[in-house]
Amino acid sequence: MSNLLLNEGYLDNTDLFYGAQDEKIFTKNKRYIDLSMCAGSILLGHNHKVFKKSIAKFISKKISNIAAPNINAKIFAKNIKKVVTNSEKIIFCNSGTEAVIKSLRLARAVNNKKKIALVTGGWHGSVDQLLYKTNKNLKPINLSSGLPKETYKNLILIPYNDFKKSEALLKKNKNKISCLIIEPIQACLPYENVAKYLKFLEIFCKKNNIILIFDEMITGLRTNCSSVQNYLKIKPDISTFGKCFGAGLPIGIISISKSISTKLQKINPKVFFGGTFSGNSIITFVGNEVLNYIIKNKKKIFKKLNTNSKYLQTELNKFFISNNLDLKIYRFQSILRLVYTKDLVKDRVSRDFLEQKKNKLISKFKDYIKNKNIYIPSSGIMFQSYSHEKKDIDYIIKEFKKGSLKIFTKNKKIN
Ligand SMILES: Cc1ncc(COP(=O)(O)O)c(C=O)c1O
Q1: Does a structural domain hold residue 190?
Q2: What's the average model confidence in pLDDT over 380-409?
Q3: Whose CA is nearest to atom 10 of ligand 1?
Q4: What is the pLDDT of residues 95-129, one digit of tens each?
Q5: Tens of pLDDT along 4-26?
Q6: 215 in ligand 1 pocket by Cβ < 6 Å?
Q7: Domain span including residue 325
Q8: Pocket of ligand 1 contains residue 217 by CB under 6 Å
């Protein structure tokens, strides 16, 4: 919590959030339309009736929490497999970060190689081995102090969505690479046109005994009640999920394919996955109840999510073009991000490079939007929920139009 406070720069109680309902979050004095939705983990909306009922139901069952294999975890795992295709085995963790850490361990155990190929621009949580970004020359830059000095030596940074460079780097290092981890569609730049690139990675990894890990923490479930891998018909060896599956409660999920599962059984000593709260009874119960509701109402939920998101994107992009504003909304399903240039940006390194020249204007725009009672998290990633109504979207569109015109119109004196 304190870390979040530091990151968000909230020093004062008036800025702290006290509660949330549907598409709104509240501080003591203000109500915001929430576009963060608990960093994308709430699909139905805050405090949704199914979420509330499931917690009440859990309490009434007198199950308590059980740090041991339990029936709720078993039922939930079975249900997850209905929406996560290509899954032989489900392993529960407490967070996305933990799921990623354990996936890297699992990959190393399976093929006994040292290096990790990290595709740039994605985010994989607070994982020492992956807390790096790159500059344009693919040099690793620490995202935190305190990282072990050697970790970056085992990293090979692969430029997202760049076939030529990716292929050259992978070819050069293929015998040393244990796994390649990628956020297949990056929430920080939800750009859909990457199917060919992902297919190329799948083929290359299969051919060269490199374990392909798709980190679908954000896209899992949010992608039409399934995943990017299902949407694009790609079969990674290991996948990580979390967020929406926990319905707003902490969770991480590792899903492994049949071939990895078979290999895993033969490994000695066994790969360690345990933890006090892994697969705990309460989150697996609530997660399962909410998942059941989402599966049952899949058509109407995803129709609304995708229609509203597309409307928001289309209206704003039309407006930016007609007013010659150097802005563009990117979208994948119900994940959106305003990028502060109209030039086509294909990866995050280029996005950051283009945006950093406009930091002052961007910060003015963000203040404008916040003052209009719309909450966007510091990442800039905007998530729609089933509780956002057309009137909310119209209001967001209206304020984005007014704010962008005021702040980003060229040759205009900014106050
Ligand atoms: C793609 C991705 N992977 C991993 C994580 C880490 O998950 P958590 O914050 O639950 O540890 C995140 C969190 O935002 C994420 O977006």
Answers
A1: yes
A2: 97
A3: 96
A4: 999 999 999 999 999 999 999 999 999 999 999 99
A5: 544 555 456 767 999 999 999 99
A6: yes
A7: 2-48+299-408
A8: yes
Closest CA to 72 of 54, 85, 88, 84: 54
Q: How confident is the model at residue 348 (pLDDT cuts 50, 70, 90)?
A: confident
Q: 36 CB less than 6 Å from ligand 1? A: no
Query: Cα separation of 140 and 149, whole Å?
Result: 12
Mean pLDDT, residues 14-41: 94
69 shares its domain with 130: yes
CATH of the domain at 136: 3.40.640.10
67 membership: H or E segment, kind and range: none
Cβ(123) – ligand 1 distance below 6 Å: yes
Using the mean position of ligand 1's atoms as its centre, give its distance from the Cα of residue 60 in Å. 32
* Nearest protein CA to atom 6 of ligand 1, as residue: 125
Q: What is the CA radius of gyration of the chain?
A: 22
Structure token digits, residue 61: 């069952």
Q: What is the mean pLDDT of residues 65-91?
A: 93
The CB of 97 under 6 Å from ligand 1? The reply is yes
State whether 63 and 145 are in the same domain. yes
Whether 218 contacts 335, CB under 8 Å: yes
